[in-house]
């Protein structure tokens, strides 16, 4: 008998592929799949459990919405369009060399001016820029990771999951902080209201000012999720570093 799957809340799993090589796009799609591919795999896993038994809890594979851009200029247009439609990309895999147009560094620089929260993984077989040059151009950031070609399929899946999850957690944290800030402003405004003489003549029990519903719990939960995401990204980076050392 198949046990019930753990459900996932709908999250932003939009990924943009930026590479001038169409074959690379096909490789990415085979590795991370898409909404239809992941749904089909989940159905296959369910059928396999039904046929061969077992009661282990199944976890649905993430379903990604994958789009392709073959030049940096096209990538910028797609990011702008997604931003206008309020359907931003959570992350992008970006190649460093994309003749005859912008290279990866120029593409990332321009894209981040439109969507600075976009998480990016640079996939390249070449070292066109030193670390100092990258930091000078893009600044110190934790939203940029590197993956050497030829890449390992497991690393690509890990990075896709970790970076999209990081985008969603950062967005959730920003919303929570904004909600808390708004509630704090309302609370301060309530405390700042002057007391009228009529109120002094007939003392009544003051009504409690509106407070946010369990803000500390909400913030703690988001912080715990963010810490889990950071641990996941740390494990991904560790495996990538080990692979790069062994291949060098």
Polypeptide structure, described:
It is a single chain. This protein is of the alpha/beta class. The protein has a domain of 148 residues: Response regulator (Rossmann fold). A five-stranded parallel β-sheet has the order 2-1-3-4-5, with helices on both faces. Strand 3, helix 4 and strand 4 form a beta-alpha-beta unit. The protein is globular, with a radius of gyration of 24 Å. The N and C termini lie far apart (48 Å). The N terminus is likely disordered.
Brief description of this entry?
The protein is an alpha/beta fold. The chain has helices at 22-32, 35-52, 72-84, 104-114, 131-138, 153-191, 197-201, 215-247; strands at residues 14-18, 65-69, 91-95, 119-124, 144-148.
Major beta-sheet overview? 5 strands, parallel
Stretches where pLDDT is under 50 for at least 5 consecutive residues are 1-8
Count of helix runs: 8
Q: Which class of secondary structure composition applies to the elements?
A: alpha/beta
> The CATH topology of the domain at 14-161 is what?
Rossmann fold
Terminal Cα span: 48 Å
Spatial arrangement of strands, main beta sheet: 2-1-3-4-5
Percent range of helical residues: 55-70%
The CATH architecture of the domain at 14-161 comes to 3-Layer(aba) Sandwich
Shape: globular
Total number of β-strand segments?
5
CATH class of the domain at 14-161: Alpha Beta
What's the CATH H-level homologous superfamily of the domain at 14-161? Answer: Response regulator
What percent of residues are in strands? 5-15%
Mean residue pLDDT: 79
């Amino acid at each position: 008998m198949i046990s019930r799957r753990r459900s996932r809340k709908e999250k932003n799993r939009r990924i943009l592929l930026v590479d001038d090589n169409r074959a690379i796009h096909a490789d990415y799609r085979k590795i991370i799949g898409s909404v239809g591919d992941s749904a089909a795999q989940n159905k296959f896993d369910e059928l396999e459990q039904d046929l061969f038994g077992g009661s282990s809890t199944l976890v649905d594979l993430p379903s990604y919405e994958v789009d392709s851009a073959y030049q940096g200029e096209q990538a910028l247009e797609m990011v702008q369009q997604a931003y206008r439609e309020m359907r931003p990309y959570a992350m992008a895999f970006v190649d460093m060399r994309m003749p005859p147009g912008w290279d990866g560094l120029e593409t990332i620089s321009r894209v981040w001016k439109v969507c600075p929260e976009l998480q990016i993984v640079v996939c390249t077989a070449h070292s066109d820029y030193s670390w100092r040059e990258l930091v000078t151009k893009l600044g110190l950031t934790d939203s940029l990771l590197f993956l050497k070609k030829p890449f390992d399929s497991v690393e690509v899946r890990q990075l896709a999951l970790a970076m999209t999850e990081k985008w969603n957690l950062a967005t959730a944290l920003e919303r929570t902080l904004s909600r808390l800030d708004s509630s704090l402003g309302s609370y301060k405004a309530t405390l700042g209201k002057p007391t009228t003489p009529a109120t002094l003549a007939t003392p009544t029990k003051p009504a409690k000012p509106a407070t946010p519903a369990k803000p500390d719990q909400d913030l703690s939960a988001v912080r715990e999720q963010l810490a889990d995401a950071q641990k996941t990204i740390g494990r991904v980076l560790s495996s990538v570093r080990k692979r790069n050392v062994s291949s060098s």
